[in-house]
From TrEMBL, chain B:
<dbReference type="InterPro" id="IPR027417">
    <property type="entry name" value="P-loop_NTPase"/>
</dbReference>
<keyword id="KW-0813">Transport</keyword>
<dbReference type="InterPro" id="IPR030679">
    <property type="entry name" value="ABC_ATPase_HisP-typ"/>
</dbReference>
<dbReference type="InterPro" id="IPR017871">
    <property type="entry name" value="ABC_transporter-like_CS"/>
</dbReference>
<dbReference type="GO" id="GO:0005524">
    <property type="term" value="F:ATP binding"/>
</dbReference>
<dbReference type="InterPro" id="IPR050086">
    <property type="entry name" value="MetN_ABC_transporter-like"/>
</dbReference>
<feature type="domain" description="ABC transporter">
    <location>
        <begin position="18"/>
        <end position="252"/>
    </location>
</feature>
<dbReference type="InterPro" id="IPR003593">
    <property type="entry name" value="AAA+_ATPase"/>
</dbReference>
<comment type="similarity">
    <text>Belongs to the ABC transporter superfamily.</text>
</comment>
<dbReference type="GO" id="GO:0016887">
    <property type="term" value="F:ATP hydrolysis activity"/>
</dbReference>
<dbReference type="GO" id="GO:0015424">
    <property type="term" value="F:ABC-type amino acid transporter activity"/>
</dbReference>
<dbReference type="InterPro" id="IPR003439">
    <property type="entry name" value="ABC_transporter-like_ATP-bd"/>
</dbReference>
<protein>
    <submittedName>
        <fullName>Arginine ABC transporter ATP-binding protein</fullName>
    </submittedName>
</protein>
<dbReference type="Pfam" id="PF00005">
    <property type="entry name" value="ABC_tran"/>
</dbReference>
<keyword id="KW-0067">ATP-binding</keyword>
<keyword id="KW-0547">Nucleotide-binding</keyword>
Length: 381, 257
């Protein structure tokens, strides 16, 4: 009997306690308290504060407090002119921003790049924002008509009255984004095909995919870029030498596809066999099974890996400079050596600006992927 | 419909749903199925039982080619199973399967799970497929769960969705591989009830299960397997009350104890 008595009071308490405890508040308070809860924690907290101070203060001083904001050439950024220690030379960035973004793309034709970028941004935002309607249309527009329009706009076409702009004039952000966007757009489907091929039941298909993936993955990107740049012309007749930007894009796409294939294979392997069997037992053929059942789940499992590959790809585009392609980082470096702007702080300013640019892009990708993971997780729970 | 009728009439032995003759299968060097001979008539309900590892799952998975047999012949619904992918898919369209682990598609809603195959395999218009799916979900008594995801349902509900999903293809034969073994005891009954009602409507069924009450109630024949062989087959009453083989007696002694 005492047993049931105890159970009764417990039930009574549980019923009375209807409100959930104010968790958020207490959790923050507990975290703060834990910072100073023991001598070790106090030491660690102080140490962390000291490190943060040592890193942040000089950065803020250089980038903001001591920075020079106006000027027309190197004079403005010299300590002798300013009469004080100088930090970042922002006029350099403002003055050269056009070169950073477009390279040597003719100034009169830069509107074409802007129009292309605007269309791309609208389509990408439309396709990626979960709240917008008819996202399928955006995806279709992005993958089918957009590449053609972008190609015509950027390279030009005499038939349309657009002056041709050879790719050796392209540079800066234009080149960086073109290479990475093409790399992403190609590597996802091509990587998927390679991953499926690697798990195919047909020995020839499997062999071809394994060899491709392993060879490409086993070679550094730089080596691949050199090969694409120097060796591709040897295999092709002199009459049809591919554009040097195109060669690099081919190299980057192959490299990204091979990494992507391995990421996606991880997802395919993580799916229980029962999913394949259920799809097969319903009479679904190979492609419907893959496209409707297996890939949606496998890709969702490896979103972090996919985005990681995208981010690496984006940063790896800086390597194209060694085969003479004028990407964003190269544009910044070259500008820093222009006599008009050369000063002790110019190249540091340039690199700081480049770092901010790369960080902003990569961080945006990472945040988007987190949001997408969360949305997909709630969708199927 | 006419298509089915024609095929049924044209096929030799039209009243046989499944014919297995001299079927052997190996996993590597391991001989899983040894000389299986089994004929299932249309509308017949067969329960397969036997100790773990005796090859029950492998046997029924050979019928829809989730496993490939290496010797002998298997004819399903008048079509012989060969390497021909088209034939395999044709057979799979007519044979529904329910798994121990449900194997619902977790990224699709219950309704989408059910309409997927009718839409993509039978090329049925979406509207019609949804009506069909709702009708069958009603039949397994969970129409109100149609918009939920499988992860939001109990095991028993998930298994009933799996049954409805198979039925949406309007199969001629249903295979069940221990459909209640992964369920909590209180959910076993709801799934068995669904299977009993299916049996009463004349569905051809092959069912691997150790639910002896179910076997007694609906089976036309009980098949006992051990080490890859069919050791004994009989009507349920005779099978349970008067087993002929020593191994059967031993097995029944264990599971009925
Ligand atoms: N893919 C496979 N590869 C190798 N051996 C396998 C494979 N699948 C099953 N086996 C083996 O074949 C034998 C029969 O397996 P099967 O799953 O048909 O048994 P079962 O009668 O269904 O057993 P249970 O009651 O445990 O489900 C077992 O010994 C098992 O280990
Ligand atoms: Mg089994």
């Amino acid at each position: 009997m005492p047993m049931s008595h105890v159970a009764d009071t417990r039930a009574g308490e549980a019923a009375a306690e209807l409100k959930p405890p104010a968790l958020e508040r207490s959790r923050v308070a507990a975290q703060l308290a834990s910072l100073v809860s023991s001598p070790t924690n106090i030491v660690l907290t102080l140490l962390a504060l000291a490190i943060a101070y040592a890193a942040l203060v000089p950065a803020v001083r250089f980038l903001v407090v001591d920075a020079v904001w106006t000027g027309v050439d190197r004079e403005a950024c010299l300590a002798s002119t300013a009469g004080r220690p100088v930090g970042a030379c922002w006029p350099f960035v403002f003055n050269r921003i056009g070169f950073f973004v477009y390279g040597q793309y003719p100034i009169a034709e830069r509107w074409r790049v802007n129009v292309t970028a605007l269309i791309a941004m609208v389509l990408i935002a439309w396709a990626l924002a979960p709240s917008l309607p008819r996202r399928g249309i955006a995806v279709f527009l992005f993958f089918v008509p957009f590449p053609i329009v972008a190609f015509l706009l950027l390279t030009g076409s005499t038939a349309l009255g657009l002056e041709p702009v050879p790719t050796n004039l392209w540079g800066g952000v234009l080149v960086t984004v073109t290479i990475s966007l093409l790399g992403m757009v190609v590597s996802l489907p091509l990587g998927t095909v390679l991953a499926l091929g690697r798990r195919s039941s047909m020995p020839i298909v499997r062999l071809v995919c394994v060899v491709l993936i392993e060879v490409i993955r086993g070679v550094p990107l730089i080596a691949l870029l050199f090969m694409a740049n120097r060796m591709l012309p040897l295999f092709l007749s002199p009459g049809m030498q591919p554009d040097s930007l195109l060669r690099v894009i081919v190299g980057v796409c192959l490299f990204a596809s091979a990494s992507m294939a391995e990421v996606i294979r991880g997802g395919l392997q993580a799916l229980p066999k029962g999913q394949y069997e259920a799809a097969q037992s319903l009479g679904l053929g190979y492609w419907p099974m893959m496209l409707l059942i297996i890939l949606p789940q496998a890709l969702k499992l490896v979103i972090p890996g996919i985005v990681n590959t995208f981010i690496s790809l984006f940063k790896d585009t800086t390597l194209v400079t060694i085969v003479g392609i004028f990407d964003f980082l190269t544009a910044v470096e070259v500008s820093a050596n222009v006599p008009q702007w050369s000063s002790p702080v110019t190249s540091v300013t340039g690199y700081a600006f480049a770092a901010m640019f790369y960080f902003a892009c990569c961080y945006a990708m990472s945040r988007y992927s987190l949001a997408m993971e969360r949305r997909l997780a709630t969708e199927s729970r | 419909m006419t298509d089915t009728a024609n095929r049924g009439a044209a096929a030799p032995g039209a009243d046989e749903a499944v014919v297995m003759s001299g079927v052997h299968k190996w996993f590597g060097a391991f001989h899983v199925l040894r000389d299986i001979n089994l004929t299932v008539k249309r509308g017949e309900r067969i329960v397969v039982c036997g100790p773990s590892g005796s090859g029950k799952s492998t046997l029924i998975r050979c019928i829809n080619r989730l496993e490939e047999h290496q010797r002998g012949r298997i004819v399903v619904d008048g079509i012989e199973l060969t390497q021909d992918v088209k034939r395999i898919e044709q057979i799979r369209r007519e044979v529904g399967m329910v798994f121990q682990q449900f194997n619902l598609f977790p990224h699709l809603t219950v309704l989408e799970n059910c309409t997927l195959a009718p839409i993509w395999v039978r090329k049925m218009p979406r509207r019609q497929a949804e009506e069909l799916a709702l009708r069958l979900l009603e039949r397994v008594r969970i129409p109100e769960q149609a918009q939920k995801y499988p992860g939001q349902l109990s095991g028993g509900q998930q298994q009933r969705v799996a049954i409805a999903r198979s039925l949406c293809m309007n199969p001629k034969i249903m295979l069940f591989d221990e459909p209640t073994s992964a369920l909590d005891p209180e959910m076993v009954k709801e799934v068995l009830d669904t299977m009993v009602s299916l049996a009463k409507e004349g569905m051809t069924m092959l069912c691997v299960t150790h639910e002896m009450g179910f076997a007694r109630q609906i089976a036309d024949r009980v098949i006992f397997m051990d080490s890859g062989q069919i050791v004994e087959e009989n009507a349920p009453e005779a099978f349970f009350t008067n087993p002929q083989q020593e191994r059967t007696k031993l097995f029944l002694g264990q599971i009925l104890a």
